[in-house]
Design goal:
Blueprint lengths: L4 H9 L4 E5 L2 E4 H17 L7 E5 L4 H12 L3 E4 L6 H11 L3 E4 L1 H11 L7 E4 L7 E2 H5 L18 E5 L7 E5 L1 H15 L6 E4 L6 H13 L3 E4 L5 H11 L3 E4 L1 H9 L13 E4 L6 H11 L3 E5 L9 E2 L13 E2 L3 E6 L12 E7 L5 E2 L3 H7 L5 E9 L5 E6 L4 E3 L2 E3 L1 H8 L5 E11 L3 E10 L7 H9 L10 E4 L17
Parallel strand pairs: 1-11, 3-4, 3-5, 4-8, 5-6, 6-7, 10-11, 12-13, 13-14, 25-26
Antiparallel strand pairs: 1-2, 8-9, 9-19, 14-15, 15-16, 17-18, 18-20, 20-21, 22-23, 24-25
Length: 496
């Protein structure tokens, strides 16, 4: 079982069909498979094979798909890296995963190259653009054979690792298997009646579970096509949906809110959209109602986490939809609600959402204890509080853990606090969630300074911007004389 077979079958059926569109660039299925084979052969020519790690840090462009599928085709593992991360964050991932080859576009190549320069195991950095100290992507694959046999992978082999703060602690490498990817792609296909006639608009990052699991793999499985775009270019997204007659649009609540507020929205024809997929955080009812009234297209809200291959429950086209619910559990898994003693609660009662089935990750890379902790008794403990209604629809009520979700990105307060304590003026700090109308919530830092120290909100935010990804940077800073603490001396966040 190797999920790359999706691409091979679709290229055989639709060799001249355009599969990827980015700006004015169009790539057919046969062209994509050719470059996937060339990249896989290039990796093999420098000694990369089954089990080796290749890091990929790139925005949405065709080369991302080439690297992802080319790496998996030879049995190696692609390690997906968020393009917003900074040098130290990247270095942690590269060292923890043991990557030998790095691939980036100009957006992340300099940070990538700087981090790689401090890790002896890194053999080369490949870049789609001309960047000093890197190998040009086109040169790397030039002259390589256009045929390549697909590695016969075991269903439980790991072709992909995503790093996430997860449900606890510091970033962890979530290992996804070929089984995870293929079963989820088949499930998404069935729920939304996907076919070769579909064309997805994807602005969500391909390195994110919403992008690759919910969109990329189902697209290639079904011989469909995909328009790639960047999340900040809202006008171009509208233009491309109209121009290419896109049929689906995945997004987070903040994006649908921005679409509703876009002043020129009425200039574009959105009638080709069959459905939109909403996730990443809770979808406000007001946003759903306004969007559907304005654009005449339903938003199917769903719920998942990286540890469950981005899928747990969803509203679907083939089932009644309940606005406010994240839908029914996916048919390939079991979802239950447990109390604190790991006993199932009655229908309508609240408890922790737990998951069992073929979408659960293989585990956290290099972290057996953390894996065992989150996978108690074979059930993935999500850290989210939910409940089922009388029809079996799942509702997200609260979070058991302190993780913040901002515009679909997971942010763990302890990670930010660890960085903030490195500032010489800070004596105490706690990071909590603050509500935000566009992002759902944002990190807020509550700070007590050391005696005699001075620091402004602007100075601290600028300091953070140099040391962490923008989505982790506190958007609000509150200064206090001291922070409330409990009997053990730990900051009492519930009071804050």
């Amino acid at each position: 079982m190797n999920f790359v077979e999706y691409l091979e079958r679709s290229a055989e059926r639709f060799p001249d069909k355009v599969v990827l569109i980015r700006d004015e660039q169009e790539v057919t299925y046969s062209e994509l498979l050719r470059d996937v084979n060339r990249f896989g052969n290039a990796l093999a020519s420098v000694g990369i094979g089954p089990g080796d790690k290749v890091a990929l840090m790139m925005n949405n462009r065709p080369e991302f798909v080439v690297v992802y599928y080319g790496t998996a085709k030879i049995g190696a593992t692609v390690v997906l890296v968020n393009t917003l991360l900074k040098k130290d964050e990247i270095k942690y991932i590269l060292e923890d995963s043991g990557c030998r080859i790095l691939v980036a576009n100009e957006t992340g190549a300099r940070e990538f190259a700087d981090a790689a320069g401090e890790i002896p195991a890194i053999e080369r950095v490949i870049c789609t653009d001309l960047v000093d100290g890197t190998t040009l992507f086109s040169d790397f694959i030039s002259g390589q054979p256009e045929e390549l046999e697909t590695y016969d992978a075991d269903p439980d082999d790991v072709p992909e690792i995503k790093y996430t703060s997860g449900t606890t602690g510091t970033p962890k490498g979530v290992m996804h298997t070929h089984r995870n990817i293929t079963i989820f792609a088949e499930t998404v296909t069935g729920m939304n009646d996907l076919s070769e006639a579909d064309r997805a608009m994807l602005f969500l990052p391909l390195y994110h579970g919403f992008g690759d699991m919910c969109c990329l793999h189902p697209t290639l499985r079904n011989g469909a096509s995909m328009v790639l775009q960047d999340p900040l270019d809202l006008q171009r997204i509208f233009e491309d949906i109209d121009r290419y007659k896109c049929t689906s649009l995945p997004g987070v609540p903040a994006f649908f809110f921005m679409m509703c507020q876009f002043p020129d929205a009425d200039k574009y024809d959105m009638s080709s959209l069959r459905f939109c997929a909403g996730g990443g955080q809770s979808m406000p009812r007001e946003v759903t109602d306004e969007f559907e009234e304005k654009f005449g297209c339903v938003i199917l809200e769903g719920y998942g986490l990286t540890e469950s291959t981005a899928g747990t429950a969803s509203n679907a086209l083939d089932k009644p939809r309940k606005v406010g619910s994240v839908g029914l559990p996916l048919p390939c898994i079991e979802v239950k609600i447990f109390d604190d003693d790991n006993n199932e609660v009655a229908q309508g009662e609240r408890g922790e959402i737990v998951i069992k089935g073929d979408l659960n990750m293989k585990g956290y890379l290099n972290k057996p204890e953390e894996t065992e902790e989150v996978m108690k008794g074979g059930w993935l403990h999500t850290g989210d509080i939910g409940m089922f209604d009388e029809d079996g629809y799942l509702y997200i009520v609260d979070r058991k853990k302190e993780m913040i979700i901002t515009s679909g990105e997971n942010v763990y307060p302890s990670e930010i606090e660890g960085t903030l304590y490195g500032h010489p003026a800070i004596g105490q700090v706690a990071v909590v969630a603050a509500p935000d109308p566009r992002r759902g919530e944002v990190p807020k830092a509550v700070v007590a300074l050391k005696p005699g120290a001075t620091l402004t909100e602007e100075e601290l935010i600028d300091w953070c911007k140099e040391r962490m990804a923008m989505f982790k940077v506190p958007r609000v800073v509150e200064f206090r004389e001291g922070l409330p603490v409990g009997p053990t001396g730990k900051v009492a966040k519930k009071e804050l």
